[in-house]
């Protein structure tokens, strides 16, 4: 990262929908907590077909090394040649590992309790390879690419993280009974890497069975590793199980760069601008970012503030499960909890 | 004996075939309708026997023609299902199938895939309804997943481009997408369902899922009485596990259908209690249990026949035999609700034969 006088500069991409408002709350909390991070804001206009905005954003992230982003909408009115901007960002920066930690929060009412799952999703290839063509009119082929290199890489990442965090088991999710070559290769790579980690149990599960197991006995899962699309499904199922898209942060790691966002990457168009979006996920994502920048004290400070709000004070944002607090209410409560820790903070 | 056999054949020749809108009714002088039965592997044979017993107890006018579908290699090395099985299905149109083995990374294609290709079983229909008496964290689930079953990610076309690089091809065609969309809306209309949701990932797979979505939108125009929604696969997953009651009929390409239909089965209690039907071209329909072969309990009289039974009930409804369908379904659900005679997977200690016997008893008591 680019630092000057112990301050870090981070690229901020507001995105669409609820992105801008959530990120402005993050900045508010950072200012209040005197976090030594400066944001370089880069806007991406999703309505334009031109790549210029994305190129600027990618250049900025290359410069700063770290980014915090909202989701950029993919407009279906634009021609298919205009790919998902979020996807372009991930592949250009080779952010090969998408990491999501799904944990049950004691203050959140859900059908399942005691969930603690780490999901590691291959983030650059698979079904998201953006290779499609219409062979003849009305017949479209979409290519799913699985490579040995990327499969080994993500498996290595998963096992290393599992060991680092003291986790016991890694489960590979696949559909190798049908996609024998593609997912077969992925599975084989996972097995190879697993042999180098005898302290960690390795098993595998077919994706449809996985979703079924998740909705009946999610507590059985520890760390899960999978190709891109299954990762999309499994992370959304898990986020739903622990209380919804407003709670879970996500991180995208590459060798040289890291981009943080909400885990389920929702644009949230229908709730944008109404002060009802849950800021928890984005705030926790910003804490993950602070940890990445080695600003661990600030990360813990804000994270504890958020979790205290979630678990104890019950001031929660609007949701079908909870009361009717606003986004601002939650943010105020977080800042109060931060202040009560006795840290030096700015005037409210 | 031969004379009786010939007479029976003669009677069948005088039968009339009546096609109604969504039910296939085979009126026959003898009153019996023949269904191709594929017991399958593992626990397949014992649960098939259970279903046959229950149907007999209910005096359902079904006679079973058992066939095996283990893949064989025809001339030219092409894998196919045995010709006598194909002949039987083409003749009878209705089939009931138990679980089949699908080995990982073996030489031949999945048997289920082969069946689908042979009979052009283009629509997989799975109604998921919460079963009273079998508690899960989710209540009031009442949705139907309709999955395109012939193409998509399961086209079976894969290549090793260079060592270490594999390409799997997902195929989406206009014809198949239109066909499944039409089936979904027809189903919704005929079964008094209020909405159809198209599930896709057209933000990422712009051309393929984009085509699928376009076809759904076009078909929706002809069914203004049914509400049409479109939702990203991940959003559906996210919302499904939080509040499944917001969903009604879901239509989607192959892989998403596979994942979502199993997810929904999980909501109501698993594959052991979920029915499934495959609708094909030319009036063919094969109903099946979608659980595995459970080789660890095969032959031990421990299996739960509910899934196959409910699929058979789905078949009866498809054939227009609603009275028999209701009778058997009620007997099955009452047995589960009563909780006295349940197989191991349902939380009880009874044998498969005891569970079956209990349902038979209830069916007979209803006479």
Automatic annotation (TrEMBL), chain A:
Subunit details: Heterooligomer of subunits alpha (IDH3A), beta (IDH3B), and gamma (IDH3G) in the apparent ratio of 2:1:1. The heterodimer containing one IDH3A and one IDH3B subunit and the heterodimer containing one IDH3A and one IDH3G subunit assemble into a heterotetramer (which contains two subunits of IDH3A, one of IDH3B and one of IDH3G) and further into the heterooctamer.
Family: Belongs to the isocitrate and isopropylmalate dehydrogenases family.
Protein name listed in UniProt: Isocitrate dehydrogenase [NAD] subunit, mitochondrial
This protein's record includes keyword Transit peptide: yes
InterPro entries: IsoCit/isopropylmalate_DH_CS, Isocitrate_DH_NAD, IsoPropMal-DH-like_dom
Any one GO molecular function term: magnesium ion binding
Chief localisation class: mitochondrion
One GO term describing the cellular component: mitochondrion
Domain Isopropylmalate dehydrogenase-like: 9-334
Alphabetical GO biological process terms: isocitrate metabolic process; tricarboxylic acid cycle
Keywords of this entry: Mitochondrion, Transit peptide, Tricarboxylic acid cycle
Subcellular location: Mitochondrion
Record keyword Transmembrane helix present: no
Pfam families referenced in this protein's UniProt entry, alphabetically: Iso_dh
Higher taxonomy: Eukaryota, Metazoa, Chordata, Craniata, Vertebrata
Automatic annotation (TrEMBL), chain B:
Keyword Endoplasmic reticulum: no
GO BP term, example: tricarboxylic acid cycle
Source organism, top-level taxon: Eukaryota
Cofactor(s) this protein requires: Mg(2+); Mn(2+)
The keyword Oxidoreductase is assigned to this record: yes
Keywords: Magnesium, Metal-binding, Mitochondrion, NAD, Oxidoreductase, Transit peptide, Tricarboxylic acid cycle
SMART domains (UniProt xref): Iso_dh
A GO cellular component annotation in the UniProt record: mitochondrion
Record's subunit section: Heterooligomer of subunits alpha (IDH3A), beta (IDH3B), and gamma (IDH3G) in the apparent ratio of 2:1:1. The heterodimer containing one IDH3A and one IDH3B subunit and the heterodimer containing one IDH3A and one IDH3G subunit assemble into a heterotetramer (which contains two subunits of IDH3A, one of IDH3B and one of IDH3G) and further into the heterooctamer.
Job of this protein: Catalytic subunit of the enzyme which catalyzes the decarboxylation of isocitrate (ICT) into alpha-ketoglutarate. The heterodimer composed of the alpha (IDH3A) and beta (IDH3B) subunits and the heterodimer composed of the alpha (IDH3A) and gamma (IDH3G) subunits, have considerable basal activity but the full activity of the heterotetramer (containing two subunits of IDH3A, one of IDH3B and one of IDH3G) requires the assembly and cooperative function of both heterodimers.
Protein known as: Isocitrate dehydrogenase [NAD] subunit, mitochondrial
Organism of provenance: Neogobius melanostomus
Taxonomic lineage from the root: Eukaryota, Metazoa, Chordata, Craniata, Vertebrata
